[in-house]
Amino acid sequence: MKFDLSTSVSAGLPFHTVASLKERLAWLTNLRWIAIISLIFCVPVADIMFQYKIGFVEITNIAVILIIINILYFFIARYFPFKNEYQELAFLELQILTDLLIISFVIHYSGGIGNPFYFLYIVQVILSGIIFPGKFLPYFNAIFAAILLTIWTILEHLVMVERYLLRNEPASLAIIVTSLLAFYITNFAGIYIINNFMSGYRSLKKIIDQKNVQLEKAIKDRSRTFRFAAHELKSPMIAIQSTLDVVKSLFSDDLRPEVKDMVFKAERRTSQVIDMIKEMIAVTQYNLGMEKPVIQKVDLDEWLWSNVSHHKEYANKKNIELIYNHPPFPVMIIIDTNGFEKVVSNLVSNALRYTLPGGKVIIEIFVSDFSYGFLVKDNGIGIPKEDMEKIFEEFYRSKNAREAEQIGTGLGLNLVKEIVEHYGGEISVTSELGKGSEFKVEFHIDEKHSYNSESEIPENSFSLQP
């Protein structure tokens, strides 16, 4: 089990990461495109259908200016990445202040306080409450919006600027005061509610992040303890195995049959425990990041066969037919050979372990137009339906697997899934109880690597990378 905290939050900004702020920048840009389309659409509708006496030319000019500004924002966000969250927040605040100014001009040219859409100010105020941590910037933006609306309303009422009316006559002082009060109440009540809600959310998020860090530390400590215990067990178990081997080789003829049988059983159990300890060490080393990936370009057929052939001796001991089906053409891939050796080893050894003597284990490579990978099939004990979704969980072993093989960690398939998914692949299983299982490791192919038929694949040039 691994936790990726590469996008963890900073101490100063418990709600944000650079990645999340970039998402909000893109979000604001997209909202602005919607606003631009709405403005351009509303101008002819208001002019032709409703024949309002408002500043259609001015509003159209504002839409053009907004298009230029939005394109500029897009290129800044895309090609001039910010170094930290604070720069991102400053850029966001600049956008919100600019948007509030543009909204104030749009409202003025479309009827001023007499236009019910003057509440559009509150959209930006609410967005600032969602985006910015703390109370300063959200309340500052709420005050800024209120000031803008108030100034424009006063200027329009005193006829210090040209009036654009939706109605036949300007709004009375009573309507102006009532409208401003309604806006102030809605504006500040809204920012108060959203700010309190987001403060609670950020506090909860901060606690979750702290617990996540603690959990990751606990998992690493557990893995270190696990690895230490496995290493400490490995040496005495190897010594026991060596002693049993000496007893078997020197005194085999002198031992009574029942004693000899006990020695052979002890030796077999010792080998199983050593294999389990090796698996524990491999899993903990991978989880602790102690094994660096070894990226190599290999022929999948040759590489896979080389790894599968290591299991032939064990297959022969169990009287299991180990079948490897070679593909008809080379499949050149670039993989982490160190990591995928563990994948192959676990899948093949599991298939052999849970297949009865006289059974078969088949390994084959597949390549289609859209994916490639390999299959490990057996006609062993199979997996119960109720256990299918759990077999990749850490330490989980199905009941029939425990009955067939008492010793096991339940870590192998969890490690396999982790490695495969780390490199963008998928692992799936189909099984029928008592008839066997099929594990499929699959990677998707980019369009540039896909071919319509095998004949189109140039020899030694089929290069795929997970």
Give an overview of the whole structure.
With 466 residues, the chain is of the alpha/beta class. The chain folds into 3 domains: 18-215, no CATH class; 227-287; 295-464, Heat Shock Protein 90. The protein is 59% helix and 11% strand. It has helices spanning 18-49, 56-79, 85-109, 121-131, 136-157, 173-251, 257-287, 300-308, 312-317, 337-353, 399-404, 412-422, and strands spanning 295-299, 321-325, 332-336, 360-367, 371-378, 426-432, 436-444, 463-464. The chain has a 5-stranded mixed β-sheet with strand order 2-4-5-7-6. It has a 3-stranded mixed β-sheet with strand order 1-3-8. The longest helix has 79 residues, at 173-251. The chain is elongated.
Number of domains: 3
Helical fraction equals 55-70%
Order of helices and strands: HHHHHHHEHHEEHEEHHEEE
Summarize model confidence as the mean pLDDT. Answer: 79
In terms of DSSP E residues, the strand content is 5-15%
Number of strands: 8
- Main β-sheet description: 5 strands, mixed
Pick out the low-confidence regions.
1-12, 447-466
Cα distance spanning the termini: 21 Å
